[in-house]
């Protein structure tokens, strides 16, 4: 078999170096600034400014051509005198509509372009040394020079595997009854091990040329072909089911970077191999690519070239002798010296549509409302019935195409009968799934879905791969992002679709501009918002669209500080009969009046409560609820605040502002139970409020502290069982380690206060762990010993205390000695706990110290230690007059031998020294000390401010300008760029 090679042009992908060098200004003009930087590996040239950001770059052999639209000729004297390393020379040349800078690369140098930070950049990579250049890509050819082809054949299936020594680029495609397998390395193909019976394949032939190898496999057209890649092995399968492709070759027209051309994005693009088909005699090009598999799924026919479907890579049939196919990184450019003759992307479809049917627009997502909605002399019903009949007749024919049904969908979209259009298009997709790959189908259905507020469904259509590079779809993506509250993404979409704005009718120009202005406001770019509003409001749009623009304009005035002017506009817009516009106007007007003190809070609450039920289901409802909850909190109506903030969470989880609403709800709950706002409620009311909204308890330390604070309040008013239940839940469900042991100690203490020593021991014993802090160990030991003491297990309690000499352990030992009537042992311990308190008589004794003093006196008396009793009386006699129980203290310090004292008086004094009450008072104080009141204030922001601890969300970021320069946009300019 003779396969001719007309030549091969190499152009591999360019790899990034470690990082781009810093840049410095080197040239500028009115609309472009050129910055240049260098390091050891890369030269970087950046093009900034209005024209610089729109620069188009193309590769022409060794030249990299940068086209600057509409710019004056920049001064590149320094670039000419000292070109960046890797560039031989830089020249300028005037072209229609702009100027071109031509960078001629040094031998072996490579270049890569892209967009970053609002500028176009050019990276020039220095030519590597010869040895390094040879090592850049391992030689894929086996040492033997031959690739042993492995073949597995069945009755209806053949698998051919090509095991190369290293990864190699490939292209696989069908032309008629032959499948071409092209590799971008020269080697022999050893087919000696292939079976004689090749299943569905007739025969296999191969040849090679400089830098390429080709196998031509003859197989009937109805035999499917699939490609797999694993490591350095390519496998081509004939027959059997097809696997879904891992990637898709994206092809678009390029009118900006020079003469009209087609560009294909082919990741890992390798070599362009020109071949001649021996069966037909024509010339075509194959573009190889590295794995994974990337397909060109459909045939594209143009005047001078045809792009045929591929199983991997790219294949171009040349109808012109001077057709050029070049690669630059991942881009494949197809053109002629004078450019390709490219018709409108929808010209073929428009020509196929009968004259009486609505024609497709120039771009797939453009709406030609006035043209599509024309009804003719018969009126709407007659036109609708005519299109319905044609669509129904077409649907009954299996191979009739989709023109009639698409025409009906255009008519319905143009007439703004969006639900009906969605039904027609969904039915078409169910019957013919191939239309899902049709750009116009996706554009029409996406537009219809957006018109009825199905924003996420619309995004799914506009994000389809067939619309990935379509500018009209970019506008819709920006529009839907704005309506979903994704304002930064919305601005990118609007800017990338700017050139398509003039193809839309006036009302959609206005709608896009107004939503773009809203996104600019929410991202802090007030200058751009002013320009966009001016553009939108000057369009001859319907009255409702004008009112929507005025609503955004009032918000702009409000943020600029002109609240009086904003309020006037809000009041006028609020009179509209369309609630979607009137409701947000009433909301903003109410907030301004409330902020300025023109409306009392109860009146504002009444107005907002009515708006809450008047308009539901979008960002306006979320803002109404947030404002209402904020006012309720400021009024101390905490339950109403939490109810209001919680009301929209379940219904509007994906609406704009819903995330911030949930943050408001969480902050309000934190403010109540962590920052102390609920301290003004009765403890039982606070507990009821907590239980009703306990799902808002935050995870982690804040949630645990919240529960402990509430438990402390319950303990203060002796609601011990509810406090124990709260702490028990923490121990069982939320805590581990040290934190669990600490809360269990608090729980055990509450059980002891409730005279439940068994519960206390259960809490302590159920949370034993190792490596606890010494202070916590001592606290838990003291609680355990006290619980054992309350159960009468005195020896066990003393054994638990061991050598513990902490004050708490001393108290337990003294209590055990008292209960065992070991007066001589109890008295010294009680006196020791008083310490040097006798030296300061300015303040009366605490209840706990007074109880210890009474007990110490009684114990010394009962032990017959008069000397010690006299010492105690001498030191603490000065506290009697201001004591809580002066008579009992006087009796205790006088002893049984005191004058005029009866044994009954002494017994009564001992009874009044209630150590348990003193211990409870001490424990309550310790619990309060563990949870001091917060002073940070409410987590929810005060009106007009942002929460300090929360990052500013997209909706509040617009309250302050971003500080970044924004294009002013004079009348008549393209304000979207």
Span from first to last CA?
Answer: 56 Å
Q: What would the principal axes of the Cα set say about the shape? A: elongated
Overall structural class, as computed from helix and strand content, comes to alpha+beta
The helix count comes to 36
Number of strands: 32
What composes the largest sheet? 6 strands, antiparallel
Kindly state the percentage of residues in helix: 40-55%
Oligomer: single chain
Average pLDDT level: 80
Question: Largest beta sheet: what is the strand line-up?
Answer: 1-24-25-30-28-27
- Poorly predicted spans: 1-19, 130-135, 934-977
Indicate the proportion of strand residues: 15-25%
Question: Your description of this structure?
Answer:
The protein is α+β, with helices and mostly antiparallel strands and 977 residues long. Helices cover 44% and strands 18% of the residues. The chain has a 6-stranded antiparallel beta sheet, with no helix packed on it. It has a 5-stranded antiparallel beta sheet with strand order 2-3-4-10-9. Strand 27 and strand 28 form a beta hairpin. Helix 16 (563-573) packs antiparallel against helix 17, helix 27 (774-790) runs antiparallel to helix 28 (794-801) and helix 29 (807-819) packs antiparallel against helix 30. The radius of gyration is 42 Å and the shape is elongated. The protein starts with a strand and ends in a 20-residue tail after the last helix. The relative contact order is 0.05. Residues 1-19, 130-135 and 934-977 have low confidence and may be disordered.
């Amino acid at each position: 078999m003779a396969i001719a090679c007309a030549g091969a042009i190499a152009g591999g992908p360019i790899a990034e170096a470690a990082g781009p060098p810093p840049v410095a200004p080197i040239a500028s003009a009115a609309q472009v600034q050129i910055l240049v930087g260098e390091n050891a590996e890369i030269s970087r040239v950046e093009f900034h400014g209005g024209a610089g950001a729109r620069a188009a770059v193309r590769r022409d052999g060794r030249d990299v051509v940068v086209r600057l639209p509409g710019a004056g000729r920049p001064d590149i004297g320094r670039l000419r005198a000292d070109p960046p390393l890797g560039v031989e020379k830089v020249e300028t040349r005037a072209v229609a509509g702009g100027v071109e800078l031509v960078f001629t690369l040094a031998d072996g140098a490579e270049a890569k372009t892209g967009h970053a930070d609002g500028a176009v950049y050019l990276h020039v990579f220095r030519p590597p040394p010869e040895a390094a250049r040879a090592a850049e890509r391992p030689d894929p050819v086996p040492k033997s020079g031959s690739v042993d082809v492995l073949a597995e054949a069945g009755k209806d299936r053949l698998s051919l595997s090509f095991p190369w020594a290293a990864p190699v680029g490939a292209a696989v495609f069908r032309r008629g009854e032959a499948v071409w397998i092209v590799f971008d390395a020269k080697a022999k193909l050893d087919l000696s091990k292939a079976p004689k019976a090749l299943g569905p394949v007739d025969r296999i032939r191969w040849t090679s040329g400089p830098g390429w190898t080709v196998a031509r496999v003859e197989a009937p057209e109805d035999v499917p072909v699939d490609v797999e890649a694993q490591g350095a092995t390519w496998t081509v399968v004939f027959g059997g089911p097809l696997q879904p492709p891992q990637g898709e070759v994206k092809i678009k027209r390029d009118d900006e970077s020079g003469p009209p051309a087609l560009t294909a994005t082919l990741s890992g693009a390798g070599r362009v191999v020109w071949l001649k088909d021996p069966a037909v005699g024509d010339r075509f090009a194959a573009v190889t690519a590295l794995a994974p598999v990337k397909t060109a799924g459909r045939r594209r026919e143009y005047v001078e070239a045809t792009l045929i479907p591929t199983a991997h890579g790219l294949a171009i049939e040349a109808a012109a002798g001077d057709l050029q196919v070049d690669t630059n990184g991942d881009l494949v450019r197809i053109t002629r010296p004078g450019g390709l003759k490219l018709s409108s992307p929808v010209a073929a479809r428009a020509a196929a549509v009968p004259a009486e049917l609505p024609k497709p627009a120039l771009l797939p997502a453009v709406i030609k409302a006035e043209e599509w909605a024309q009804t003719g002399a018969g009126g709407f019903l007659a036109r609708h019935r005519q299109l319905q009949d044609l669509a129904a007749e077409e649907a009954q024919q299996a191979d009739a195409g989709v023109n009639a049904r698409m025409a009906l969908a255009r008519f319905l979209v143009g007439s703004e009968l969006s639900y009906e259009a969605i039904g027609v298009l969904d039915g078409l997709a169910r019957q013919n799934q191939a239309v899902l790959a049709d750009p116009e189908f996706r554009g029409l259905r996406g537009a219809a879905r957006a018109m009825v507020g199905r924003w996420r469904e619309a995004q799914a259509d506009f994000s389809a791969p067939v619309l990935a590079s379509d500018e009209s779809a970019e506008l819709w993506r920006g529009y839907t992002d704005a309506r979903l509250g994704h304002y930064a993404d919305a601005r990118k979409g609007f800017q990338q679709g700017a050139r398509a704005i003039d193809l839309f009718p006036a009302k959609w120009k206005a709608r896009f501009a107004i939503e773009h202005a809203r996104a600019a406001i929410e991202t802090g770019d007030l200058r751009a918002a002013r320009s966009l509003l001016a553009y939108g409001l000057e369009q001859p749009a319907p009255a409702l669209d004008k009112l929507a623009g005025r609503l955004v304009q009032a918000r702009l005035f409000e943020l600029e500080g002109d609240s009086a002017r904003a309020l006037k506009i809000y009041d006028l817009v609020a009179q509209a009969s369309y609630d979607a516009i009137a409701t947000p106007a009433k909301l903003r007007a109410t907030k301004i009046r409330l902020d300025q003190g023109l409306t009392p809070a109860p009146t504002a609450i009444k107005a907002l409560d009515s708006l809450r039920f008047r308009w539901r289901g979008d960002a306006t409802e979320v803002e109404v609820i947030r404002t209402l909850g904020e006012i309720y909190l400021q009024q101390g109506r905490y339950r109403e605040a939490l109810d209001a903030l919680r009301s929209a969470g379940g219904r509007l989880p994906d609406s704009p502002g819903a995330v911030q609403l949930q943050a408001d709800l969480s902050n309000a709950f934190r403010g109540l139970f962590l920052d102390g706002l609920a301290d003004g409620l009765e403890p039982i009311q606070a507990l009821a409020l907590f239980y009703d909204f306990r799902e808002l308890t935050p995870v982690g330390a804040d949630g645990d502290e919240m529960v402990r604070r509430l438990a402390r309040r319950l303990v203060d008013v002796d609601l011990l069982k509810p406090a124990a239940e709260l702490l028990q839940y923490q121990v069982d469900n939320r805590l581990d380690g040290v934190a669990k042991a600490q809360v269990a100690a608090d729980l055990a203490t509450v059980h002891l206060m409730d005279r439940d020593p068994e519960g206390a021991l259960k809490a302590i014993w159920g949370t034993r762990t190792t490596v606890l802090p010494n202070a916590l160990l001592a606290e838990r030991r003291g609680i355990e010993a006290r619980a054992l003491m309350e159960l009468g297990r005195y020896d066990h309690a003393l054994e638990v205390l061991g050598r513990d000499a902490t004050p708490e352990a001393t108290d337990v030992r003294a209590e055990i000695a008292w209960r065992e009537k070991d007066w001589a042992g109890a008295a010294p311990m009680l006196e020791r706990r008083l310490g040097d308190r006798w030296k300061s008589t300015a303040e009366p004794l605490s209840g706990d110290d007074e109880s210890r003093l009474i007990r110490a006196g009684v114990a010394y008396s009962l032990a017959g230690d008069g000397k010690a009793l006299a010492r105690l009386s001498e030191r603490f006699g000065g506290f009697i007059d201001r004591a809580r129980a002066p008579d009992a203290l006087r009796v205790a310090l006088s002893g049984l031998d005191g004058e005029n004292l009866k044994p009954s008086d002494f017994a009564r004094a001992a009874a009044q020294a209630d150590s348990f009450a003193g211990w409870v008072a001490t424990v309550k104080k310790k619990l309060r000390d563990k949870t001091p009141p917060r002073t940070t204030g409410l987590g929810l922001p005060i009106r007009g401010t942002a929460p300090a601890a929360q990052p500013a969300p997209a909706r509040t970021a617009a309250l302050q300008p971003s500080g970044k320069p924004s294009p002013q946009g004079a009348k008549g300019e393209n304000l979207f760029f």
